[in-house]
Each structure stands twice: as structure tokens, then as C-alpha cells.
Design goal:
The protein is built from nine helices and four strands, in the order αααβαβαβααβαα. The protein has 199 residues and is α/β, with parallel strands linked by helices. The longest helix is centred in the first third of the chain and has 15 residues.
Length: 199
């Protein structure tokens, strides 16, 4: 170990602020487990009672059919193509059961903006998951999926979220925020809504 790296490790363990050079040395020369150990020691010094946590979740793509046609997406397909799929409720519940068996507590249910899906379809899924697996938080659907449902049902976003919450929905992930510059959004996903609508 170089003397600069040794000094950086010692400084990190003793809690003094590293110099720019020491930080670069740590980043360039220290093994990832060493960096992780030092970062955890620093975290415990600064936040001894606020332990970090993580969530075991399932990213479940219930359909790959989408009508938004983003240029950067390698996931979607159009309806009625050989690659198109929609998971049945039974298939979704089997995957959630496997998630729970592994100690999972969160379901990230996302797909494309499938024109066949309506609010009732999502409510049916959420109700089944929340009833059969009450320990699983439903953290699901992109803003584009929510927007599609609201438009198709003639409802406000608040009404859609309210109905989904009653069925067991907990939170929405940040999907759809890949680019928050409208000029770029129009270039790469012209059918996606504006930044302001996403916000």
C-alpha cells in the first residue's frame, strides 16, 4: 500500500477530513471492500443511531406492450407482435409469493403504457396483492402509466391515486424522469408528456 493510501486510510479511520489528494488516492487505489468499510465507519461516527437499511423488492414487468415509443427504450413492443406479453394475475401473484419467500417487502410493478389496461385492471392487481401479501408495499407504475389511466378514465390524478390507495397502492417510483428538458423529451420520446406534467 502506498504511503499516501496508508495516510488516507488512517485519516478516514481517525475521522479527520481527507485532502483532495488523499481522496483521489483512496478512490484510485483502495479495494472496494476497503472503501465500503471506511464509508461505514464514517457513517457510524456521524449517525450512530441512524443505521442504513435496504429493501428487498421485485421489479415485475407485467407487460411489455407500450404505445409511447420512446427512442431509447429496448424494452417495449407493439400490441399483437410475437414478443408481446401480459402477465396474468396468477403469474403476478406467483412472483409476489416468491418475493415474500425471499424476505421481500416491496413490489415495483411496471410495464409499458399498454392501451388495453384500465384503472380496474390495476385495482384488481393491487387488491389481490395487498390482500394476499399484506407485508408487501406496492411501489408501482410510472407517471406515464398513471397519466394514461387518468386520461382513459376521465379522472384527475388525485382521483386515480385515491382509488389505487384504497386498493393497497403505497407509492409511485420516479420512472419517466430520464430527461426533464422538454426539447430533449420531444426528440427522444415525442409521445411522452411534458416535464411540467411529470413534475
Amino acid at each position: 500500500m502506498s504511503s499516501l493510501l496508508e495516510e488516507a486510510v488512517r485519516g478516514a479511520q481517525e475521522g479527520y477530513r481527507l485532502s483532495w489528494e488523499e481522496g483521489i488516492s483512496l478512490f484510485a487505489d483502495a479495494a472496494l471492500p476497503v472503501l465500503g468499510l471506511l464509508a461505514n465507519e464514517a457513517r457510524l461516527r456521524h449517525n450512530p443511531e441512524n443505521l442504513g437499511t435496504f429493501v428487498v423488492d421485485e421489479n415485475l414487468n407485467y407487460t411489455n406492450v407500450c404505445n409511447v415509443l420512446c427512442k431509447f427504450c429496448a424494452f417495449y413492443t407493439l400490441p399483437k407482435t410475437p414478443e408481446a406479453y401480459d402477465l396474468t394475475l396468477e403469474q403476478i401473484l406467483e412472483r409476489v409469493e416468491a418475493l415474500v419467500a425471499e424476505g421481500g417487502t416491496q413490489l415495483l410493478l411496471q410495464g409499458g403504457v399498454n392501451p388495453q389496461y384500465r384503472l380496474r385492471d390495476y385495482l384488481r392487481i393491487f387488491k389481490a396483492v395487498s390482500t394476499q401479501f399484506p407485508t408487501v408495499d406496492i411501489h408501482s407504475l410510472s407517471s406515464a402509466e398513471i397519466e394514461w389511466v387518468a386520461k382513459k378514465e376521465g379522472m384527475t390524478y388525485r382521483e386515480v391515486f385515491g382509488a389505487m390507495k384504497e386498493a393497497g397502492y403505497k407509492s409511485m417510483p420516479g420512472a419517466g424522469a430520464e430527461i426533464l428538458v422538454d426539447r430533449v423529451r420531444k426528440e427522444i420520446s415525442p409521445l411522452r408528456s411534458s416535464r411540467d406534467k411529470w413534475l
